[in-house]
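Appendix C. Worked example: Cyclin-like f-box protein
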Amino acid sequence: MLFRSLTAVFFFTLAFWGNSAEAIPRRKSSAATSTTTQATAQQQAAQISGGISTATDGSTILDQTVTVNDLNLRPKVSAPADQFTTLSGVTGAATKPNTTGVMGLNVLLHGDGGQSFFYFPNQAVQANLMGVVVLAPDPNLFWGGGSGLQRTDGVAHAQAVNDLILNAMPNVISFNSSQVFFTGVSGGSLLLSGFFIPAQMTNFKGTGVLLNCGGLVPQVTFQDADAVVASTTIHFQSTQSEPAPLQPAILSAIAAYENLATAAGLSIDRINALQTLNNAPKGGHCEFDGKGFSSGIQVMANAFSNVIQLGGNGQVNGIGDVLTGVVGNEKLTFSGAT
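Step 2, the predicted output written as structure tokens:
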């Protein structure tokens, strides 16, 4: 029943925003900033309380809201029941709080409006990584707040995600903090590339980030840049018809991260092993299957370990091998714009 309730909220959210294209990073409308009684996307999502449900692979999903740095974050964690702590309230929980586990995490930050939070595409355990998705602490459900490519709350949101993982989540789930990977979707990719990787990835070195249909050059001072870029896999995945404002932003982000790797002294072969790109799919924004936004994101989520974890074969269903090294391939061409 809980899964059906969350699905109902998702479709209510789509009705409020108009359609799935609203997952494109966009500017706030006058309605979003006016003093009307229209419920915000965040208020609509809050109408359904969190709880416990079952994931597609039989794992347990825990959905709850926690306060981090005075921001209300709503993480959903999907994991085998015995990996939850005795404080979680999950039946079958078997570990003590703040216990290091044997499994890692794949933390997904959704696009504008929260569509991927409700669908939770990374909920199935994959290659020893448990799934996490976090709802943005913003009235419009924009990661980084602001609008368009201007994410005015990016610093605070990136810090909150970091502190959620390192300080709050160990109370409810046991995981290996040296195996925390990340997935961005559209606006979530803007936060990860623009703010989180440069400011917080020093705490998660040796893992990787999948940047779907979005990218920004680092917007803040890069902490421990040489060590981060030398140990982090980053894949930029887009389509042939991303929105016009996103196309140059993605290209600039690719060039910026490659330049950081070059400055760190990495060889071309090493850079190409760590930083890869692909924009072969012919769909619109995030439509990696050529059919739809959510189904496209699901295709990439299903192939996460192939694409991001070192040694993966790069194979994505319907696309093929997406692991093209960035060096010499930075100037992606797009055939259109949605």
